[in-house]
Amino acid sequence: MKNKRVKMDVFVSLLLAIGLLGGCSKDAYPKEQNKFLALVKQGEIQWQTTKHTTAITFKDSGDGNIVVPVKINGLGKTRYFVVDTGAPTVVDISLAKELALRKIRDVTTGDSLSNVKSTPFVKLKSITIGDVTLKNINVLAADLKRGFGKKIDGILGSSTLTHFGVLINFKKHKFIISDGVKKWVSRSDKAIPFQQHLRAGLGPIIKCRIGDAVFPALIDTGASSFDIPLKAFQQTRAYKNHRYLQSIGQTSLGLHQVDNKVSSYFGVMDAIILGESLVVKKYPVYASKLTRDALLGRKFLRNFETVIDYPNHAVYFRPLGKKIHKEILTFGVGMLKKGDNITVISLWRGSDAYNKGLRVGDKILSINGKRSAGITQSEIFKMLNRRKSMEIVFKNSTGKHHVKLYKQSMLNMLSKTLTRIGH
Q1: What b/e sequence results for 264-279 when a residue is b if at least 16 CB atoms lie within 10 Å of its CB, and e otherwise?
Q2: Which residues contact 28 (CB under 8 A, 6 or more apart)?
Q3: How far apart are CA 266 and CA 284, in angstroms?
Q4: Is the distance from CB of 42 to CB of 121 less than 8 angstroms?
Q5: Three-state DSSP class for residue 395
Q6: Which residues does residue 193 pair with via DSSP β-bridges, in sequence order?
Q7: How far apart are CA 276 and CA 39, in angstroms?
Q8: Are 325 and 354 a contacting pair, CB within 8 Å?
Q9: What is the reported pTM?
Q10: CB under 8 Å to 302, separation ≥6 — which residues?
């Protein structure tokens, strides 16, 4: 999958695989698409209540993701899955081995950098989410621990949710699955039609328009922010008038490798139109050439109660307040853990990290007093996401340095940059 995903602010999340795994792209893998569809459309649904609705108060994993409890194969142990509408359902490879899940076949998958690999489909006898059970379903198996940490056992994605109506309310921490959405939708609610594509694991994709640019946008609870394709960004007034920030290095991470020649952009759009009805003005977005479809991530979705009617291919956005929350805070640094080492792979000019001397390629020796060798990728995510400040010891050609970093507003960084260059 070529979509840019993740999942925290672009710098916080740049370490997660963007679209940890995506379905087979129809364009890139025509021989695989029918196999993928046939595999994920399996299963039978059983409800434990006559209401055919189950509501879960979800947890925040510390990196901003929705985490829900599930039961696998009727066993008593509770497992924890991240709800990701922009991906297929995936079990961690260690869980697949622990439960001796039967391999069905391998399919071709790819990451955001178009790196391709073979990934196994395995059979689940059942997965229970609250009061609903799906039996005999096929899911992907992949290494998720690197990005999510030891406590996450899988991804609950659109290849499973496609059977249901789904309501997500970040403000109330509510995740609801039902056999329909009539109970949630009123006549005044405007439906936005969507399509489903393999490249997004059957995630819902709607039309997005910014100025003259029209492009698909994936509703993606696994992503952090609002990301758009670079080609679309280059058609906006913000780009044409040089009213944007540009990163040094890659602020998005492929599943298999990093491309240090890729930059990201940040700017404020005059107006974003979703479908034909929802207009959002003066909203900040990120852009990258790695982004194929725009991503409507959690920071955007938190402004709405989102109802996804998968069977009828319609989505409803109900505002949760009069004002759209637009603020994005960041340390301005991207880090990659490889072996025992943590390396700086990206920076925003004007950020606290940049102003205090960090540069791409610098080695992080410790964070908050903990040596890099003992810090996992998941812990990096959580520190970048949760903390307002952190102490870093890093090393470069000039020696060893100890700095304390503070989060800053991306909007303020943009404003200061534009003032400095005379805009």
Answers
A1: bbbbbbeebbbbeebe
A2: 2, 110, 114, 116, 199
A3: 7
A4: no
A5: strand
A6: 314
A7: 34
A8: no
A9: 0.87
A10: 170, 171, 320, 325
Rounded to whole angstroms, how far apart are CA atoms 252 and 346?
A: 9
The H helix count followed by the E strand count for the chain is 11, 31
3-class SS letters over 349-384? CCCHHHHCCCCCCCEEEEECCEEHHHCCHHHHHHHH
**Alpha helices, DSSP H, located in 200-344:** 230-233, 237-240, 298-301
- Of 330, 241, 308, 365, nearest to 86 by C-alpha is 308
Strands (E), 143-277: 154-157, 165-169, 174-178, 192-193, 195-197, 203-210, 213-219, 226-229, 245-249, 264-274
Q: Per-residue pLDDT tens, the chain, 423 aa: give them.
A: 333 333 333 222 222 332 333 333 334 444 556 666 777 766 799 999 999 999 999 876 666 889 999 999 999 999 999 999 999 999 999 999 999 999 998 877 665 445 567 889 999 999 999 999 999 999 999 999 877 888 899 999 999 999 999 999 999 999 999 999 999 999 999 999 999 987 788 999 999 999 999 999 999 999 989 999 999 999 999 999 999 999 998 765 543 345 556 789 999 999 999 999 999 999 999 998 888 889 999 999 999 999 999 999 999 999 998 899 999 999 999 999 989 999 999 999 999 999 999 999 999 999 999 999 999 888 898 888 889 999 999 999 999 999 999 999 999 999 998 887 665
Q: Answer for the pair 170, 58: CB distance below 8 angstroms, yes or no.
A: no
How confident is the model over 243-290, as pLDDT tens digits? 999 999 876 554 334 555 678 999 999 999 999 999 999 999 999 888
User: Encoding tokens for residue 55?
Assistant: 């509501």
What region, left, alpha or beta, does residue 257 occupy, with left being phi > 0 and alpha being psi -120 to 50 degrees? beta
The answer to whether 141 touches 96, Cβ cutoff 8 Å, is yes
Alpha-carbon gap, residue 168 to 114, rounded angstroms = 30
